Amino acid sequence: MFFFLSIVVGGLFAAGLYLILRRSIVKLIFGLVLLGHAANLLIFTASGLVRARPPLIPEGDLTPGTVFADPVPQALVLTAIVISFAVIAFAAVLIKRFYRTVGSGDVDELKATDI
Amino acid sequence: MKNLLISPILIPLITAGLSLVAWKSSRVQRIFGLLGAGALMVAAVVLFMSVYTNGIQVLQVGNWPSPFGITLVADLLSSVMVVLTALVGLAVAVYSIAAVDEQQISFGYFPFFQVLLTGVCGAFLTGDLFNLYVWFEVMLMASFVLMVLGGEPPQVEGGIKYVTLNLLSSITFLVAVGILYAVAHTLNMADLSLKLTKIAQTHPTLILTVAAFFIIGFGIKAGIFPLYFWLPASYHTPPAATSALFAGLLTKVGVYALIRVFTLVFPRMPHSFSLLLTLAGLTMVIGVLGAFAQFEMRRILSFHIISQIGYMIMGLGLLASNNPAARVLGIAAAVFYIAHHIIVKTNLFLISGTVKVLRGTYQLKSLGGLAASSPWLAILFLIPALSLAGIPPLSGFWAKFAMIKAGLQAEQYLVVTAALVAGLLTLMSMIKIWDEAFWKPAPEVLPKEGSPSSGPLTPRRLFLLLGPIILLAGLTVVIGLQPQPLFTVAERAAAQLLDSGEYIQAVLSNSQAAIQEFDAVRGVPL
User: Fold this and answer.
1) Does A6 contact B at CB distance below 8 Å?
2) CA-to-CA distance for B519 and B526, rounded, in angstroms?
3) Which domain holds residue B326?
């Protein structure tokens, strides 16, 4: 499973990078979404995968045993998902505004502020 | 008294909430903005005095012992940065009353202004890496909105570049945090410092890889070469008050994060410091060369931000040196430089905004004759401009002097040469603005006086525009004539940063037993 998820993380990073290098501004946003997913999955995978052992302490014990799923990466990923949700919503509005003012979705049109 | 530590985060957050309640009244929002910025200034100064006399202050949020909960830590560097944030916040809040138009305020300028201050103060005060990421996002989200507030086409265009590259940097930072958690099972910076020292001995390449991720992530935020392209493409697009706030604070949060991470979290790695030193030299020279091609005031100033970031990173890069005196002086010079730079750069952007109010343009080619028509503004421009270039007796001279002395002590002659050349070119660039905007006769066809939305220039409005500029220029002169107090603070901050024992002791003093017990259950990392 670890091997499989590592490949998925790599694939997501590659796809995200490919998309943000395209000229379409919609693909730019999708690329950022994929990169965000890749980062979240990386945190989750790298911290170790434990199957069907929630971090709950059995009744009468003081520790949850030796093998249990680490709750911290899950909390980190959850926070990161919420943040990226807000940021992507903002970016979606921004590209809509850009489309309305420029009338095209081509990133190459973004040259006026560089000269 | 312990809750004092959280007040620089809470005060702007509460002010933002109050401004939202007063959404319909721009007058009330202005007053709240001013009161909030004033209260933040008081809290920041009290916090600084308390840290200066009593040492590092720690607050375990929710009483969870570190490293299990979120820890807020104020050492000297953090508290100095919070004071500078409050200073910029206060200056820009006053300036905003006169400079920000009704439309911007009706879109929520003041609430987002305060949220930005919340994020910046949070980033300076946190002792936890993931929490640092969250504060970065708070700050970025507010800056995204401020950047495009009003929705002018150049703003939207600059906004897209700004948002994209800052998101990339956040993702890089997040990846670094994820890997660090996977290898060390902790994100508390003090705890990481202890654990990474051991892990670096057995897995040096792994730690170096994570360090590279941090350099890229924070490097984009700080605007170091070759990751700075978003900055000159976006900083000149929002209204002047917003860009002054950005120019003063945002990149410096990236520099702060680099200094914090590479003095505290990672053990001393000469390779990464040598890399930072090379990047610092390139950043200085290429930033200042970029400014040469520009004829728009704020674009010139934006390129100078990049160049100046190079000097601050140079202080960090000098940690590569084997000479302990050079290491302390390098970091002290970097802290001094940050303080000088925040004051001067905010001021220059505020002045460019005032030029825009007077003449309705930032283009040097259509400006001119300001020295004759507004001699007071010309003098107020010369103080920060000459300070930026490092002319004695202004603050920039001492900042550059300390940095170059540290470079010579560390025997890094190449980067010292770059610093001197960049200083000279900065002077030429400032003279260009002086010549074109202030000294040369005004062009035949004067652009329309004042932008349409800015309204008449009453004495009250002029006072509000010039008050913050005079305050910041005054500080530049005071630091220039009397640099020793600030330099003593910078030296003490540097000593505290380089001997991380005090920080770790303050954060983890009561937690060693708990950490050992936790590691016994969870398994010792790597």
Assistant:
1) no
2) 11
3) 268-481
Q: How far apart are CA B69 and CA B251, in angstroms?
A: 28
pLDDT greater at residue A108 or residue A11: A11
pLDDT at residue B524, rounded to an integer: 65
Q: Enumerate residues 73 to 112 of chain A having a beta carbon within 8 A of any beta carbon in chain B.
A: 73, 76, 79-80, 83, 86-87, 90-91, 94-95, 97-98, 101-102, 110, 112
* Long-range contacts formed by A25-30: CB under 8 A, 24+ apart: A25/A95, A25/A98, A25/A99, A25/A105, A25/A106, A25/A107, A25/B160, A26/A95, A26/A105, A28/A95, A28/A107, A28/B164, A29/A88, A29/A91, A29/A92, A29/A95
- For residues B198 and B273, the answer to whether their CB atoms sit within 8 Å is no
Residue-wise pLDDT for B13-52, tens only, equals 999 999 999 888 888 889 999 999 999 999 999 999 999 9
Is the pLDDT at B275 greater than 60, yes or no?
A: yes
Which residues, in sequence order, are bridge partners of residue B363?
B296
Which stretches of chain A are DSSP H helices?
A: 2-20, 25-46, 71-102
Are B432 and B300 within 8 A, CB to CB? yes
Q: What does the pLDDT read at residue B449?
A: 47
Asked whether residue A57 is domain-assigned, the answer is no
Question: Do residues B66 and B511 lie in contact, with contact meaning Cβ atoms separated by under 8 Å?
Answer: yes
Q: Is residue A110 part of a domain?
A: no
Answer whether A36 sits within 8 Å of B137, measured CB to CB: no
Whether A63 and chain B come into contact, CB under 8 Å, resolves to yes
The structural domain count of chain B equals 1
pLDDT, tens only, B163-204 = 999 999 999 999 999 999 999 888 999 989 988 888 888 888
Tell me if B261 is assigned to some domain.
Answer: no
Distance from CA of B163 to the nearest CA of A (A): 7
Q: What is the CATH number of the domain that holds A93?
A: 1.10.287
With respect to residue B404, please indicate whether it lies within any of the assigned structural domains: yes
Whole-number pLDDT of residue B185:
87
Residue B355 belongs to a domain: yes
Q: How far apart are CA B360 and CA B378, in angstroms?
A: 17
Predicted pLDDT at B395: 92
Domain membership flag for residue A115: no
Q: Which of B130, B158, B182 sits opposite A47 (nearest CB)?
A: B182
pLDDT in the model for residue B212? 92
List, as one string, the DSSP characters of B200-264. HHH-HHHHHHHHHHHHHHHHHHHT-TTS-THHHHHTTSS-HHHHHHHHHHHHHHHHHHHHHIIII
User: A26 lies in a domain?
Assistant: yes
**Residue of B405, B403, B408, B225 whose CA lies nearest to B331:** B403
User: With contacts defined as CB-CB under 8 Å, which chain B residues touch A113?
Assistant: 154, 157-158, 161, 233-234, 236-237
* Greatest alpha-carbon span in chain B: 80
Give the ipTM.
Answer: 0.93
Answer whether residue B286 is part of any domain.
Answer: yes
Question: How much is the pLDDT for B452?
Answer: 43
Distance from CA of A45 to the nearest CA of B (A): 9
Q: Please tell me the total count of domains within chain A.
A: 1
Place of tokens 């704020």: B298
Question: Residue B124 corresponds to which tokens in the numbers above?
Answer: 């300076």
Cβ neighbours of residue B263 closer than 8 Å, sequence gap 6 or more: B316, B319, B331, B497, B498, B500
Helix (H, G, I), strand (E, B) or coil at B150: coil
**Residue B72: helix, strand or coil by DSSP?**
strand
